[in-house]
Amino acid sequence: MDDQVLFIKKRAIVKNDVELTFHKDYIWIYNNGKFPVAIYKLIGCRDIDKVEWDYMDAFNDGIIATAVQETDHFIFEAVDLGGREFRVECNEVIRSDREYEKEDLIDLLKESQRQIERTGDLTKKLKTQIEDLRHYLEKELDINKRKADQAAWLPEDKKQFILGQNALIERVLERLTQKK
Question: How far from 79 is each of 61, 71, 74, 84, CA to CA, in Å?
Fold first, then answer.
């Protein structure tokens, strides 16, 4: 039994035959293994219309697929990581491993580009939030300094509290403006 987790890439059904293409890693991650793609050809399947193909690996968290030969037929079994089982009886099941095809590589490049764009968008958003926080803290620091300088009527413990807040705000601002 092969306990390798596979991720479905595509499915083709022609009459009673099914070809399932799986990647041996998430379909958006390049796998530099020798043969990163597994193909199962299910030939002469019975009750093919009763299999819920759309639910196989519906959450894209992978499946474990096996083919078991019985006396006069094969059983293709797939269990997704959520525990949902798929079972297909066929005349023959052929598994082959291969390299990526051009289409797979193009999909990987497109996904890499999307991830780069998402990372850029996230970085921009975080920089904006940091800048907003810095402006807010600078404003609070200015207000607290004026309170401490102009409020001679405040008791000493309140002035010390304000000065302590100022020291804390200054340290946070120092950390925000540090370049790493």
Answer: 11, 23, 16, 6
pLDDT of residue 1: 42
Q: Are strands 63-69 and 37-43 parallel, antiparallel or unpaired?
A: unpaired
* Selection from 63, 25, 20, 57 nearest residue 39 by Cα: 20
Q: Residue 75: which pLDDT band, with cuts at 50, 70 and 90?
A: very high
Q: How confident is residue 96, by pLDDT bands cut at 50, 70 and 90?
A: very high
Provide the pLDDT for residue 180: 55
